Amino acid sequence: MLQLYMPLHFLGFVYREIKNALADMEKMFRLLDENREIQDAAGAPTLAVGNAAVSFQHVSFGYDPERQILFDVSFDIPAGHTVAVVGASGAGKSTLSRLLFRFYDVTAGGIFINGQDLRHVTQQSLRAAIGIVPQDTVLFNDSIFYNIAYGRPDATRDEVIAAARSAHIHDFIGALPQGYDTVVGERGLKLSGGEKQRVAIARAILKDPAILIFDEATSALDSHSERAIQDELRAIARDRTTLIIAHRLSTVVEAEQILVMDQGRVIERGSHRELLAAQGRYAQMWALQQQEQV
Ligand code: ATP
Protein backbone atom coordinates (compact mmCIF):
# COMPACT_ATOMS: atom_id res chain seq x y z
CA MET A 1 0.00 0.00 0.00
CA LEU A 2 2.82 2.34 0.97
CA GLN A 3 4.49 1.58 -2.38
CA LEU A 4 1.44 2.95 -4.15
CA TYR A 5 0.85 5.80 -1.72
CA MET A 6 4.29 7.41 -2.01
CA PRO A 7 4.30 7.92 -5.81
CA LEU A 8 0.70 9.17 -5.71
CA HIS A 9 1.54 11.55 -2.90
CA PHE A 10 4.53 12.78 -4.91
CA LEU A 11 2.40 13.22 -8.03
CA GLY A 12 -0.07 15.26 -5.98
CA PHE A 13 2.77 17.49 -4.86
CA VAL A 14 4.05 17.95 -8.44
CA TYR A 15 0.51 18.75 -9.62
CA ARG A 16 0.05 21.43 -6.95
CA GLU A 17 3.43 22.99 -7.74
CA ILE A 18 2.66 23.14 -11.49
CA LYS A 19 -0.78 24.60 -10.82
CA ASN A 20 0.69 27.32 -8.60
CA ALA A 21 3.39 28.09 -11.15
CA LEU A 22 0.73 28.43 -13.83
CA ALA A 23 -1.32 30.72 -11.62
CA ASP A 24 1.77 32.96 -11.26
CA MET A 25 2.36 32.92 -15.02
CA GLU A 26 -1.26 33.82 -15.59
CA LYS A 27 -0.93 36.81 -13.28
CA MET A 28 2.21 37.89 -15.10
CA PHE A 29 0.52 37.63 -18.49
CA ARG A 30 -2.50 39.52 -17.23
CA LEU A 31 -0.16 42.32 -16.17
CA LEU A 32 1.55 42.25 -19.56
CA ASP A 33 -1.78 42.03 -21.38
CA GLU A 34 -2.86 45.39 -20.02
CA ASN A 35 -0.03 46.77 -22.08
CA ARG A 36 -0.02 44.87 -25.28
CA GLU A 37 -2.06 47.39 -27.26
CA ILE A 38 0.28 50.26 -26.47
CA GLN A 39 3.11 50.51 -28.99
CA ASP A 40 6.06 52.87 -29.24
CA ALA A 41 5.82 55.35 -32.11
CA ALA A 42 8.32 54.54 -34.87
CA GLY A 43 11.69 56.10 -34.04
CA ALA A 44 10.45 57.38 -30.66
CA PRO A 45 13.21 59.05 -28.64
CA THR A 46 13.79 58.23 -24.98
CA LEU A 47 12.14 60.50 -22.45
CA ALA A 48 14.47 63.20 -21.21
CA VAL A 49 13.91 63.72 -17.51
CA GLY A 50 15.88 65.72 -15.07
CA ASN A 51 13.44 67.56 -12.92
CA ALA A 52 10.15 66.36 -14.32
CA ALA A 53 7.16 68.66 -14.71
CA VAL A 54 3.94 66.74 -15.39
CA SER A 55 1.03 68.25 -17.29
CA PHE A 56 -2.41 66.75 -18.01
CA GLN A 57 -4.04 68.83 -20.74
CA HIS A 58 -7.73 68.40 -21.54
CA VAL A 59 -7.52 64.66 -20.95
CA SER A 60 -10.56 62.54 -21.75
CA PHE A 61 -10.57 58.77 -21.49
CA GLY A 62 -12.76 55.65 -21.33
CA TYR A 63 -11.70 52.00 -20.91
CA ASP A 64 -14.54 51.21 -23.35
CA PRO A 65 -15.66 53.51 -26.14
CA GLU A 66 -19.23 53.37 -24.79
CA ARG A 67 -18.34 54.56 -21.32
CA GLN A 68 -16.31 57.70 -20.80
CA ILE A 69 -14.51 57.84 -17.44
CA LEU A 70 -12.54 61.12 -17.57
CA PHE A 71 -13.87 64.38 -18.98
CA ASP A 72 -11.51 67.21 -19.96
CA VAL A 73 -9.13 66.87 -17.00
CA SER A 74 -6.31 69.45 -16.85
CA PHE A 75 -3.72 70.04 -14.13
CA ASP A 76 0.01 70.64 -13.73
CA ILE A 77 2.51 69.26 -11.26
CA PRO A 78 5.55 71.56 -11.34
CA ALA A 79 8.88 69.72 -11.03
CA GLY A 80 9.49 68.59 -7.46
CA HIS A 81 5.95 69.43 -6.29
CA THR A 82 3.03 67.34 -5.06
CA VAL A 83 -0.54 67.18 -6.29
CA ALA A 84 -3.10 65.08 -4.43
CA VAL A 85 -6.36 63.78 -5.87
CA VAL A 86 -9.44 63.07 -3.75
CA GLY A 87 -13.03 62.19 -4.54
CA ALA A 88 -15.67 59.51 -4.20
CA SER A 89 -14.97 55.91 -5.10
CA GLY A 90 -15.09 55.44 -8.87
CA ALA A 91 -14.49 59.14 -9.61
CA GLY A 92 -11.50 58.24 -11.81
CA LYS A 93 -8.60 58.94 -9.44
CA SER A 94 -6.58 55.76 -10.03
CA THR A 95 -7.28 56.03 -13.75
CA LEU A 96 -5.10 59.18 -13.76
CA SER A 97 -2.14 57.17 -12.46
CA ARG A 98 -2.69 54.40 -15.05
CA LEU A 99 -2.66 57.01 -17.82
CA LEU A 100 0.50 58.67 -16.49
CA PHE A 101 2.21 55.26 -16.56
CA ARG A 102 0.74 54.82 -20.05
CA PHE A 103 -1.06 51.56 -19.38
CA TYR A 104 -3.62 53.12 -21.69
CA ASP A 105 -3.62 56.02 -24.13
CA VAL A 106 -5.87 59.03 -23.61
CA THR A 107 -8.76 59.38 -26.07
CA ALA A 108 -8.49 63.16 -26.25
CA GLY A 109 -6.02 65.74 -24.97
CA GLY A 110 -2.52 64.77 -23.89
CA ILE A 111 -0.16 64.09 -20.99
CA PHE A 112 3.25 65.75 -21.06
CA ILE A 113 6.46 65.39 -19.06
CA ASN A 114 8.75 68.38 -19.51
CA GLY A 115 6.72 69.21 -22.60
CA GLN A 116 7.20 65.76 -24.17
CA ASP A 117 3.99 63.92 -25.08
CA LEU A 118 4.01 60.46 -23.43
CA ARG A 119 2.92 58.92 -26.72
CA HIS A 120 6.05 60.16 -28.44
CA VAL A 121 8.72 58.66 -26.17
CA THR A 122 9.69 55.03 -25.55
CA GLN A 123 7.67 53.21 -22.90
CA GLN A 124 10.87 51.84 -21.40
CA SER A 125 12.24 55.34 -20.70
CA LEU A 126 8.88 56.52 -19.42
CA ARG A 127 8.53 53.66 -16.96
CA ALA A 128 12.13 54.04 -15.81
CA ALA A 129 11.28 57.62 -14.80
CA ILE A 130 8.20 56.71 -12.72
CA GLY A 131 7.97 54.84 -9.43
CA ILE A 132 4.58 53.56 -8.30
CA VAL A 133 3.49 52.63 -4.82
CA PRO A 134 0.21 50.92 -5.70
CA GLN A 135 -2.92 50.40 -3.61
CA ASP A 136 -2.30 46.72 -3.30
CA THR A 137 1.27 45.62 -3.87
CA VAL A 138 1.75 42.30 -5.62
CA LEU A 139 4.60 40.40 -4.00
CA PHE A 140 6.46 37.76 -5.95
CA ASN A 141 6.85 34.35 -4.38
CA ASP A 142 10.46 35.03 -3.67
CA SER A 143 12.71 36.48 -0.97
CA ILE A 144 12.05 39.89 0.56
CA PHE A 145 15.43 40.87 -0.89
CA TYR A 146 14.25 40.04 -4.43
CA ASN A 147 10.95 41.82 -3.85
CA ILE A 148 12.69 45.07 -2.88
CA ALA A 149 15.50 44.79 -5.43
CA TYR A 150 12.85 44.39 -8.14
CA GLY A 151 12.81 48.23 -8.13
CA ARG A 152 16.37 48.09 -9.53
CA PRO A 153 17.68 44.58 -10.17
CA ASP A 154 21.36 45.61 -10.22
CA ALA A 155 21.18 47.05 -6.68
CA THR A 156 23.74 45.83 -4.16
CA ARG A 157 22.78 44.27 -0.83
CA ASP A 158 23.80 47.45 0.99
CA GLU A 159 21.56 49.57 -1.26
CA VAL A 160 18.59 47.24 -0.68
CA ILE A 161 19.13 47.42 3.07
CA ALA A 162 19.44 51.23 2.97
CA ALA A 163 16.12 51.43 1.06
CA ALA A 164 14.47 49.10 3.58
CA ARG A 165 15.76 51.28 6.41
CA SER A 166 14.32 54.43 4.82
CA ALA A 167 10.98 52.64 4.35
CA HIS A 168 11.11 51.59 8.03
CA ILE A 169 10.85 47.90 7.30
CA HIS A 170 14.46 46.90 8.00
CA ASP A 171 13.88 46.11 11.69
CA PHE A 172 10.87 43.97 10.86
CA ILE A 173 12.91 42.02 8.29
CA GLY A 174 15.86 41.73 10.64
CA ALA A 175 13.66 40.06 13.25
CA LEU A 176 12.61 37.26 10.86
CA PRO A 177 14.63 34.03 11.30
CA GLN A 178 15.76 34.12 7.67
CA GLY A 179 15.97 37.90 7.40
CA TYR A 180 16.13 39.19 3.84
CA ASP A 181 16.05 35.61 2.51
CA THR A 182 12.55 35.02 3.91
CA VAL A 183 10.21 33.94 1.14
CA VAL A 184 7.06 36.10 1.00
CA GLY A 185 3.96 36.10 -1.18
CA GLU A 186 1.09 33.67 -1.59
CA ARG A 187 3.11 30.63 -0.66
CA GLY A 188 5.51 32.29 1.74
CA LEU A 189 5.16 34.63 4.66
CA LYS A 190 2.02 36.70 4.36
CA LEU A 191 2.64 40.38 5.01
CA SER A 192 0.03 42.83 6.30
CA GLY A 193 -1.26 45.64 4.07
CA GLY A 194 1.03 48.16 5.80
CA GLU A 195 4.09 45.89 5.50
CA LYS A 196 3.41 45.26 1.82
CA GLN A 197 3.07 48.97 1.18
CA ARG A 198 6.42 49.51 2.93
CA VAL A 199 8.05 46.95 0.63
CA ALA A 200 6.62 48.96 -2.28
CA ILE A 201 7.98 52.19 -0.76
CA ALA A 202 11.43 50.54 -0.40
CA ARG A 203 11.22 49.46 -4.07
CA ALA A 204 10.41 53.04 -5.08
CA ILE A 205 13.23 54.49 -2.93
CA LEU A 206 15.68 52.09 -4.57
CA LYS A 207 14.45 53.01 -8.04
CA ASP A 208 14.92 56.71 -7.20
CA PRO A 209 12.52 57.93 -9.89
CA ALA A 210 11.96 61.55 -10.94
CA ILE A 211 8.20 61.00 -10.67
CA LEU A 212 6.40 59.18 -7.90
CA ILE A 213 2.82 57.94 -7.92
CA PHE A 214 1.43 56.97 -4.56
CA ASP A 215 -1.93 55.21 -4.69
CA GLU A 216 -3.02 55.04 -1.09
CA ALA A 217 -4.35 51.70 0.16
CA THR A 218 -8.15 51.76 0.38
CA SER A 219 -8.22 49.25 3.20
CA ALA A 220 -7.88 51.06 6.48
CA LEU A 221 -4.58 50.61 8.28
CA ASP A 222 -4.43 51.11 12.01
CA SER A 223 -3.76 54.77 12.79
CA HIS A 224 -0.18 54.10 13.93
CA SER A 225 0.77 52.37 10.63
CA GLU A 226 -1.11 55.00 8.68
CA ARG A 227 0.83 57.82 10.30
CA ALA A 228 4.13 55.97 9.83
CA ILE A 229 3.43 55.41 6.11
CA GLN A 230 2.47 59.05 5.68
CA ASP A 231 5.78 60.09 7.26
CA GLU A 232 7.70 57.77 4.92
CA LEU A 233 5.73 59.08 1.96
CA ARG A 234 6.53 62.67 2.89
CA ALA A 235 10.22 61.80 3.07
CA ILE A 236 10.38 60.20 -0.41
CA ALA A 237 8.07 62.77 -2.00
CA ARG A 238 10.40 65.59 -1.01
CA ASP A 239 11.97 67.17 -4.11
CA ARG A 240 10.23 64.64 -6.35
CA THR A 241 7.30 65.27 -8.67
CA THR A 242 4.53 63.40 -6.87
CA LEU A 243 0.95 62.43 -7.63
CA ILE A 244 -0.94 61.15 -4.59
CA ILE A 245 -4.23 59.32 -5.06
CA ALA A 246 -5.74 59.68 -1.62
CA HIS A 247 -8.57 57.85 0.05
CA ARG A 248 -8.24 59.63 3.36
CA LEU A 249 -8.17 63.41 3.61
CA SER A 250 -5.61 63.31 6.42
CA THR A 251 -3.08 62.27 3.76
CA VAL A 252 -3.54 65.40 1.65
CA VAL A 253 -3.69 68.19 4.21
CA GLU A 254 -0.15 69.31 3.40
CA ALA A 255 -0.29 68.90 -0.39
CA GLU A 256 0.40 72.09 -2.33
CA GLN A 257 -2.53 71.41 -4.58
CA ILE A 258 -5.55 69.17 -4.08
CA LEU A 259 -7.84 68.19 -6.94
CA VAL A 260 -11.36 67.15 -6.02
CA MET A 261 -12.83 64.75 -8.59
CA ASP A 262 -16.41 63.78 -9.16
CA GLN A 263 -17.60 61.46 -11.90
CA GLY A 264 -14.52 61.96 -14.04
CA ARG A 265 -14.31 65.74 -13.68
CA VAL A 266 -12.18 68.04 -11.55
CA ILE A 267 -14.78 70.04 -9.65
CA GLU A 268 -12.54 71.95 -7.20
CA ARG A 269 -8.84 72.63 -6.75
CA GLY A 270 -6.65 74.42 -4.22
CA SER A 271 -4.79 73.95 -0.96
CA HIS A 272 -6.49 72.42 2.07
CA ARG A 273 -7.06 75.87 3.53
CA GLU A 274 -8.38 77.35 0.29
CA LEU A 275 -10.76 74.44 -0.20
CA LEU A 276 -12.12 74.69 3.33
CA ALA A 277 -12.70 78.43 2.83
CA ALA A 278 -14.54 77.72 -0.45
CA GLN A 279 -17.10 75.68 1.54
CA GLY A 280 -17.75 73.34 -1.34
CA ARG A 281 -17.47 69.56 -1.77
CA TYR A 282 -14.06 69.28 -0.11
CA ALA A 283 -15.26 71.18 2.94
CA GLN A 284 -18.25 68.80 3.14
CA MET A 285 -15.99 65.75 2.85
CA TRP A 286 -13.72 67.16 5.55
CA ALA A 287 -16.61 67.87 7.94
CA LEU A 288 -17.93 64.35 7.37
CA GLN A 289 -14.57 62.77 8.06
CA GLN A 290 -14.14 64.81 11.25
CA GLN A 291 -17.55 63.59 12.47
CA GLU A 292 -16.62 59.98 11.72
CA GLN A 293 -13.51 60.30 13.83
CA VAL A 294 -15.41 61.56 16.90
P1 ATP B 1 -11.47 54.18 -5.80
O1 ATP B 1 -11.43 55.34 -4.87
O2 ATP B 1 -12.58 53.24 -5.46
O3 ATP B 1 -10.15 53.49 -5.98
P2 ATP B 1 -11.16 55.69 -8.27
O4 ATP B 1 -11.66 57.07 -8.16
O5 ATP B 1 -9.70 55.47 -8.17
O6 ATP B 1 -11.92 54.76 -7.24
P3 ATP B 1 -10.96 54.40 -10.85
O7 ATP B 1 -10.27 53.15 -10.38
O8 ATP B 1 -10.15 55.40 -11.56
O9 ATP B 1 -11.72 55.10 -9.64
O10 ATP B 1 -12.17 53.94 -11.74
C1 ATP B 1 -13.03 54.87 -12.41
C2 ATP B 1 -14.07 54.10 -13.16
O11 ATP B 1 -13.44 53.33 -14.19
C3 ATP B 1 -14.87 53.13 -12.32
O12 ATP B 1 -16.24 53.28 -12.66
C4 ATP B 1 -14.37 51.77 -12.70
O13 ATP B 1 -15.43 50.85 -12.71
C5 ATP B 1 -13.88 51.99 -14.13
N1 ATP B 1 -12.71 51.11 -14.41
C6 ATP B 1 -11.58 51.06 -13.70
N2 ATP B 1 -10.71 50.17 -14.26
C7 ATP B 1 -11.32 49.65 -15.34
C8 ATP B 1 -10.95 48.69 -16.34
N3 ATP B 1 -9.75 48.10 -16.32
N4 ATP B 1 -11.86 48.42 -17.31
C9 ATP B 1 -13.06 49.03 -17.33
N5 ATP B 1 -13.47 49.94 -16.42
C10 ATP B 1 -12.62 50.25 -15.43
From TrEMBL:
Domain ABC transporter: 54-288
Transmembrane regions: 1-15
Cell compartment(s), UniProt: Cell membrane
GO biological process, one term: intracellular iron ion homeostasis
Keyword set includes ATP-binding: yes
Keywords tagged on the record: ATP-binding, Cell membrane, Membrane, Nucleotide-binding, Transmembrane, Transmembrane helix, Transport
Primary site of residence: membrane
GO terms, molecular function: ABC-type transporter activity; ATP binding; ATP hydrolysis activity
GO cellular component terms attached to this protein's record: plasma membrane
UniProt name for this protein: ATM1-type heavy metal exporter
Taxonomic lineage: Bacteria, Pseudomonadati, Pseudomonadota, Betaproteobacteria, Nitrosomonadales
